[in-house]
Design a protein that fits this description.
By secondary structure, the protein is of the alpha/beta class. The chain has 2 domains: 33-154, 3-Layer(aba) Sandwich (D-Maltodextrin-Binding Protein, domain 2), CATH 3.40.190; 171-258, Periplasmic binding protein-like II (D-Maltodextrin-Binding Protein, domain 2, 3-Layer(aba) Sandwich). It is 39% helix and 11% strand. It has helices at 3-42, 51-61, 72-85, 99-111, 127-130, 139-144, 214-217, 219-224, 226-229; strands at 63-68, 90-95, 171-174, 200-202, 236-240, 255-258. The chain starts with a helix and ends with a strand.
């Protein structure tokens, strides 16, 4: 064997050896992906193994209809950004609001007459009622496997096919003529301090944001905590909650601003 040929052979062997870990990792990743797909499908979920497959199917469909609780001034730039990234999809997004509208949509879903949208808003009031009528894509599983680039914290870890694509902020305003800045509560528990006994708060009659405290406090504490608050309703504080999804407990800080 000539020296040149021997060197080339050794180089080839070295390349193969160095490439073995990568091949092993790729094989392991492929096996994990297939296992995730099988597990998802065994539970009735749809699981795509590549982003390219999702894009190809989206191109065939060509249209996307979205119903959202976002106001149009906020929904419009989201739609425009989507259109810029996926110009081959004809997207139409519209705002919905009001308990009557949510109830009507649910009735349409239950009766099998719902049509005209692909992505719908799940209001906190009737959150559990939507699940039987949502298409079962394993969004969580695909995100975990890297098929979808969606942060896991945005996906409902229990239902797997529900995504929160925005985060709302809660604000509690206070009257600085009635309470000094150093006495302003910094946490939810601070509202229950003895010095506030007999004081009055103005609260939302639909305190949907309380659901966000369950992962942090536990169900029992969350259900018991509002009871002392019921004795402190009126002026001094004005709670202005914004609803967000139950698994987004990190979105429940208590911000305070003077009025």
């Amino acid at each position: 064997m000539r020296l040149h040929d021997a060197r080339m052979l050794l180089l080839g062997i070295l390349v193969v050896i160095l490439g073995l870990p990568s091949l092993a990792n790729a094989a392991a990743a492929g096996a994990a992906l297939q296992k995730a797909k099988q597990e998802a499908e065994s539970k009735g979920f749809i699981f795509e193994v590549s982003h390219d497959e999702i894009i190809a199917k989206a191109k065939k469909e060509g249209k996307l209809r979205v119903i959202s609780s976002l106001e149009m001034e906020n929904l419009k730039p989201v739609s425009e950004a989507f259109k810029k990234k996926y110009p081959f999809i004809d997207i139409r997004a519209e705002e919905i609001a009001g308990t009557d509208t949510y109830q009507r949509m649910l009735l349409e879903m239950k009766s099998g007459t719902a049509s005209g949208w692909d992505v719908n808003y799940l209001t906190t009031d009737f959150y559990d009622d939507y699940f039987p009528y949502q298409k079962k894509f394993d969004v969580l599983g695909m995100a975990q496997q890297g098929v979808l680039q969606i942060p896991l914290g945005m996906i409902d870890p229990v239902n797997r096919n529900i995504v929160s694509y925005t985060t709302n902020t809660q604000v509690v305003t206070y009257n600085k003529k009635l309470i000094s800045e150093d006495k302003v509560p910094n946490t939810w528990e601070d509202f229950l301090k003895p010095e506030f006994k007999g004081r009055k708060f103005l609260v939302d009659i639909r305190p949907q944001e309380v659901a966000n405290l369950v992962p942090l406090w536990g169900l029992e504490k969350t259900l018991l905590s509002p009871k002392p608050w019921q004795h402190r309703i009126q002026s001094g504080f004005a709670a202005i909650p914004e609803p967000s999804l139950p698994w987004r407990w990190e979105s429940t800080p208590c911000f305070l601003a003077p009025i």
